Design the sequence.
């Protein structure tokens, strides 16, 4: 079975500080991993994805994520947070080789950047 | 939100009514998806379609119906059988699995917020 866990419902960080939003996953075989961001009353915007290759993936708006196979994690990071980064963040996974054709989403982490 | 449009943005439904949510895409994607979003529950898959004239139930299909008569369009009908339809509904599309799109990104529309009066 495929699943995603985002252990923190809420993350608060001061503007200018580094931020981390955590994600762990469970999937048979190799994973495809995605991060999306959602602003209030809007659809999800794609940030970045891991397919294969380099474990550090760089995405939009200065975000990056590190794939860690041994810890089955794909944490989202940014070196210096902006107030405009405040939003709801979703991690998603699907199996690379088979199984369900759809994405499985975590429950989301609300990031608040404090000025 | 790319080339995916959803209408209306806000929709109000009376008890016992069926309502249809529109989703159109101009990305030439074969696969389209409908999700329901409730606070604290993330996104749950209602229906998906990999090709015209074919669709599959997702995890929470009861009380919903879809059609896929055109590649560009994937309307969702919320029927009176759906007991708790108040939610935010999101449509998405991507390149289909059968076209080698397994790792491709899903792109989302702006959403429709449905409220039952």
Sequence:
């Amino acid at each position: 079975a495929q699943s995603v866990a985002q252990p923190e419902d809420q993350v608060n960080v001061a503007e200018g500080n580094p931020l981390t939003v955590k994600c762990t996953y469970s999937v048979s075989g190799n994973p495809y991993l995605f991060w999306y961001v959602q602003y209030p009353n809007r659809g999800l915007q794609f940030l970045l994805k891991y397919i294969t290759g380099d474990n550090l993936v760089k995405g939009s708006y200065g975000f990056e994520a590190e794939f860690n196979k041994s810890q089955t994690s794909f944490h989202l990071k940014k070196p210096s947070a902006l107030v405009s980064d405040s939003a709801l963040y979703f991690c998603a996974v699907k199996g690379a080789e088979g199984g369900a054709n759809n994405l499985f989403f975590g429950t989301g982490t609300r990031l608040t950047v404090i000025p | 939100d790319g080339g995916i449009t959803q209408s209306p943005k806000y929709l109000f439904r009376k008890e016992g009514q069926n309502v249809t949510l529109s989703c159109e895409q101009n990305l030439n994607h074969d696969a389209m998806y409908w999700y329901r979003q409730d606070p604290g529950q993330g996104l749950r898959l209602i229906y998906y379609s990999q090709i015209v004239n074919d669709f599959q139930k997702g995890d929470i299909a009861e009380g919903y119906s879809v059609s896929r008569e055109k590649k560009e369009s994937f309307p969702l009908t919320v029927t009176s059988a759906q007991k708790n339809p108040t939610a935010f509904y999101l449509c998405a599309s991507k390149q289909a699995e059968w076209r080698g799109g397994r790792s491709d990104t899903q792109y989302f529309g702006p959403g429709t917020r449905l409220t039952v009066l």
About this structure: Chain A has no helices and twelve strands. Chain A has a mean pLDDT of 93. Chain A touches chain B at residues 9, 32, 34, 36, 41-46, 49, 51, 90, 94, 96, 101-103, 105-108 (CB under 8 Å). Residues 84 and 113 of chain A are 8 Å apart (CA to CA).
